[in-house]
Design a protein that fits this description.
The complex is a heterodimer of chains A (310) and B (327). Chain A is mainly α. Chain A contains 14 helices and no strands. The chains are: A mainly alpha (310), B alpha/beta (327). The interface between A and B is medium-sized, with 23 and 35 residues.
Chain lengths: 310, 327
């Protein structure tokens, strides 16, 4: 609101152009709102850092995350007042003498990959079902609701455990199992958002202009439910990452020696009382990742909410 | 070229309404046998209370709802035989609420050029020029081209909606309460704009409104709807001077006057609009009619021709009513 107002200075008073200059474009308004939102900026910054860490892992990691050296096992991190602590292993080493810092860095790759891929798969399934149900209503809606209810009646962790123990476990099996299981929130949210948009006059106007149903859904409805979609996507990404950690912790997710954060916690749990950093460090990493994703999602919701427009 | 652009023949629209979780669905006759013709250059005003089927009729004419009975002919061809794009070239709507009829995520230029895009207009390079031409026609400055609807006022938004409707040069524009969501000061601007455009572009209008002053101002012919039927139809002048149907008379009496001492006019109608799921027997207007007769509750009136239109009331077909009451 502190934009200089030329009409007040009197220099351009009365010129009709002034009104337009003072009216900021939607992009400018959005930019200002994004950078004024602490949670969004913080979450976004942390997430960018973690993504950068995952992408640059080969350059950042001082050691091979799989390299075992039993003579150097269980070195405490650098802040421990222990003669064993060394800058060569800033976060110490685990039971097999693998560098914890390198494992943490490579672990971010697995978490982000699983979170992103599972979110993408579930997003495609859930959004398709939800938008179709919301747009067409009637029978389609009934069928989709039945599918959603069926899915909701299955406990995710139990089904994931059963499937993984039946058909074996690799990273991609975990991704597909999670992706095929957690689309319900996408479907429910997209269905209700589409229903709200569907009855607005601009959809009727587009129909009266002769637009195809496909065009109406893609160009009229989707842009208006995109903000809800982004919020659900962040929530589901965090959900998938946590589920992967839980599955790995139970030994049915990513298999050792891959450096998954959930697996690191599982491997460290026997040393919880004497080497607490073994679960503390990956736990904290997981916490920061989930927090930053959720902050980002909440921020997107706040910034794009219609009641905050103008 | 035929004189008649739109010919609605006994159109019906029945919705199945569920009356509760454990009861079956019941039919609601939103439009219950409407026959009406609209000639080129005419302005047909459709008036009636909320829920009488005005908007449903408009949606059927626009092809947004399939009639459950009867026919709608556009330029002599059944609407069912026309493609979506053909109907769109012929007819365009203007909606009541310009706050919901414009996609908030699209710029003014994108909104107005959408019809050209959808019709696969062969000259994309001329779109901008044609959009700006239509913007000038409806009184929008060129600089608004890249703005978004939330940066415009209500009147400007409605002008955008008008420009979008006109960009493909339709024959007929269906205005569904085009001014009732606008400020009073803006209403007259939009009405005058519609009036000007009618002469400039030789348009035909269907004007749906419950504002009788608007209808009297613009319409050349008026149809009065009650519970899904057109109960009276006549030239604007004769309808406003010599209303025939008791419902039309009550509607005209209900118009508020600027004179505060006169208070709210009493229409003698009572407040109860009948339940459209279970409409009254015979003439559906009989429970509220001031001139109700014995057979009104038993026999539905037939349309009777008047000087310039028709009326559906036993008052003007007393013989017909009695005759059928005996048989």
């Amino acid at each position: 609101m502190s934009a200089p107002n030329p009409t007040i200075n009197g220099t351009l008073a009365g010129a009709p152009v002034v009104a337009q200059i003072l009216e900021p474009s939607p992009g400018a308004i959005l930019r200002r709102r994004i950078f004024g939102h602490v949670g969004l900026v913080l979450g976004g910054a942390f997430l960018v850092l973690i993504i950068a860490m995952a992408l640059l892992a080969p350059f950042l990691a001082p050691h091979d995350p799989l390299d075992q050296e039993l003579s150097r096992k269980l070195i405490p991190p650098i802040w421990h007042d222990s003669p064993k602590a060394t800058w060569e292993h800033p976060l110490g080493t685990d039971l097999f003498g693998r560098d914890y810092f390198s494992r943490l860095i490579y672990g971010s790759q697995i978490s982000l990959l699983i979170g992103f891929a599972a979110m993408l798969i579930s997003g495609v399934i859930g959004t398709t079902l939800g938008v179709l149900a919301g747009y067409f209503g009637g029978r389609v809606d009934m069928v989709v609701n039945f599918i959603i209810t069926t899915r909701l009646s299955m406990p995710v962790v139990l089904v994931a455990l059963a499937v993984v123990s039946l058909i074996g476990n690799s990273l991609w099996i975990v991704i597909w199992v999670l992706g095929l299981l957690i689309w319900d929130r996408f479907a429910v949210v997209m269905r209700s958002s589409t229903q709200q948009m569907r009855n607005l006059d601009y959809v009727a106007a587009a129909q009266a202009l002769g637009c195809s149903t496909f065009r109406i859904i893609v160009t009229e409805i989707m842009p208006n439910i995109l903000n809800n979609l982004i919020v659900v996507a962040t929530v589901e990404m965090a959900h998938a990452i946590l589920l992967e950690a839980a599955l790995s912790f139970l030994g049915l997710g990513v298999q050792p020696p891959a450096p998954s954060w959930g697996l690191m916690i599982a491997e460290g749990k026997g040393f919880m009382f004497f080497q607490p950093w073994l679960i503390g460090i990956p736990g904290a990493a997981l916490f920061i990742l989930i927090l930053s994703i959720n902050l980002l999602g909440d921020g997107v919701r706040d910034v794009t909410a219609p009641e905050n427009q103008n | 070229m035929t004189k008649t652009v739109i010919d609605v023949r006994d159109a019906r629209q029945t919705f199945m309404i569920s009356a509760g979780a454990f009861r079956g669905k019941r039919p609601l006759h939103a439009v219950n046998g409407v026959s009406i013709t609209i000639d080129r250059g005419e302005v047909l005003g459709i008036v009636g209370e909320s829920g009488c089927g005005k908007t449903t009729l408009a949606k059927m004419i626009l092809g947004l709802l399939q009639p459950t009975g009867g026919d709608i002919l556009l330029e002599g061809r059944p609407i069912t035989e026309l493609t979506r794009l053909e109907v769109a070239r012929l007819l365009q709507p203007i909606f009541q609420d310009p706050y919901s009829s414009l996609n908030p995520r699209k710029s003014v230029g994108n909104i107005i050029s959408l019809p050209l895009k959808v019709q696969k207009d062969p000259h994309p390079e001329s779109w901008r020029e044609r959009v700006e031409e239509k913007m000038a026609l409806v009184g929008l400055a060129k600089r608004l081209y890249n703005l978004y609807p939330n940066q415009l006022s209500g009147g400007q938004r409605q002008r955008v909606a008008v420009a979008r409707a006109l960009v493909n040069r339709p024959q007929v524009v269906i205005c569904d309460e085009p001014t009732s969501a606008l400020d009073v000061s803006v209403q007259s601007q939009i009405l005058n704009l519609l009036q000007d455009l009618r002469y400039q572009l030789n348009l035909t209008y269907i004007l749906i409104s419950h504002n009788l002053a608007v209808v009297e101002h613009i319409a050349t012919r008026v149809a009065v709807m009650y519970l899904g039927r057109v109960v009276e139809e006549a030239d604007t002048a004769s309808l406003f001077e010599r209303p025939q149907h008791p419902y039309t008379r009550a509607l005209l009496e209900s118009v508020l006057t600027p004179e505060p001492a006169l208070g709210v006019p009493d229409t003698q109608l009572g407040a109860a609009y009948p339940n459209p799921v279970a409409p009254p027997s015979g003439c559906t207007f009989h429970p509220r009619c001031t001139q109700v007769m014995n057979h009104c509750s038993r026999i539905a009136p037939r349309p009777v021709a008047t000087e310039t239109g028709h009326v559906e009331c036993h008052l003007y077909a007393a013989d017909q009513g009695k005759e059928r009451a005996i048989s």
